[in-house]
Amino acid sequence: MNVMSTVLPISPELEKNDASALDRVRALESEYLLQTYARYPLVLDRGKGCFVFDPEGKRYLDFITGIGVNALGHAHPRLVKVLREQASRLWHSSNLYYNAYQGPLAERLAKASGLKRTFFCNSGAESMEGALKMVRAHGHKINAEKYEIVALHNSFHGRTFGALSITGQEKYRQDFEPLLPGARFVQPNDEVALEQVVNNRTAGIVLEWIQGEGGIFPMSIEYIRKARELADRYDALLVFDEIQCGVGRTGKYFAYQLSDPLVLPDVMVAAKPLACGIPMGVIVANDRAAQSIGSGMHGSTFGGGPIACRVALEFMDILDGLLPHIDKMGRYFHAGLEGLQKQFPFIREVRGQGLMIGVDLSFSGKQLVLDALEQGLLMNCTHDTVLRFLPPYIVTEKEIDRALGILKRVFKLAAKRGDAN
Ligand SMILES: Cc1ncc(COP(=O)(O)O)c(C=O)c1O
């Protein structure tokens, strides 16, 4: 008999036999869900700190955090307290009325980002949609021909139509063409190519400081500066997608703050870790960009709800003191992975910043993700060959050592199997 610590959905047939929790969940999902996800064979039941547990109580070190969302790990006591308190007070108010928390959170974001005005929504893609509308509206005000958006090959901006239109990876787009007209793609880190494509028709330039889904590829500071210069030259809006690399992930509030001297965007979008698992996305804009969008031009029923805002405010308070720790742990993990690179020649490169790290292999990393899972470590694989790590910001050296130990065993197994051959 399975000993389960929780109530799981059970179909009557499966209840009769001795199916595992995984089998039960899988059976129902395969019957009733749109089959859009290729999930790993694991049901998550609960989490505490940097660990998650399956229904049988096996524990896993969580170094992917729901793709960069659970920034403070799981069940952080301060977040749980705020969430409980707000749940008994007010869940939802819509944007017909004020709640007490949007203003303070927007003020915090303004101070952290150096940009002025925030719009609240519920996901990364939704924040990108809003930013694209701002770009279009900005162009419109100048002339009807100014609607092109320059984006990067290998980028990822979300699954909605607008965001897909500027996502520079064919595999996400191909089934949905034709997409929004006016998207122009250019090679990352090629300033000459960028200069060739930006012109008077350009309403906006959109880029990720560190391409996440694309395989943890950082942009060079020269490239970012060129993007800023061209946006200014042609009166276009510069948009930074900080959905994966932002809100503390790199050891700065936002990845663009790694630049010195600082390169500011006109618009910045962020989401994932902002409310640590309660859905929230934001568009943060300077005054010039904010002028593009006026009353009635955009909105969201759920955006800026009191629960999400309060959790995000509490998170921002905690993040203030955590940034140096993120940087320190990032360096520690990076150095440990480079140590492994010396032992395993099939590791081509260790890339990234802070706690956003990719390990590029000379072969597909998919089997290694399964091997690590078996050994109690959660990570994922992006861009086929890149093992991606997005650990929680509260991770300690001890937990990093544990992850490195598991990875060493996984790499040894891969070497023995001859995965690289
Ligand atoms: C850089 C970037 N932009 C946009 C998105 C889309 O965010 P969401 O899945 O919340 O819509 C993602 C998601 O992975 C992302 O990494």
Bound molecules: pyridoxal-5'-phosphate
Structural class: alpha/beta
Residues in helices, as a percent range: 25-40%
Widest β-sheet, arrangement of strands: 4-12-11-10-7-5-6
Poorly predicted ranges (pLDDT <50, ≥5 residues)? 1-5
**How many H/I helices?**
14
Radius of gyration: 22 Å
Reported for the largest beta sheet, the result is: 7 strands, mixed
| Alpha-carbon distance between the two ends | 42 Å
Describe the fold and architecture:
The chain has 421 residues and is an alpha/beta fold. It contains 14 helices and 17 strands. The protein has a seven-stranded mixed β-sheet with strand order 4-12-11-10-7-5-6, with helices on both faces. Strands 1-2-3-15 form a four-stranded mixed β-sheet. A four-stranded antiparallel β-sheet has the order 13-14-17-16, covered by helices on one side. Helix 4 runs antiparallel to helix 12, helix 5 runs parallel beside helix 12 and helix 12 crosses helix 14. The longest helix is centred in the last third of the chain and has 38 residues. 46% of the residues are buried. Bound molecules: pyridoxal-5'-phosphate (PLP). Pyridoxal-5'-phosphate binds next to helix 6. The site of pyridoxal-5'-phosphate (PLP) has 15 residues, from helix 6.
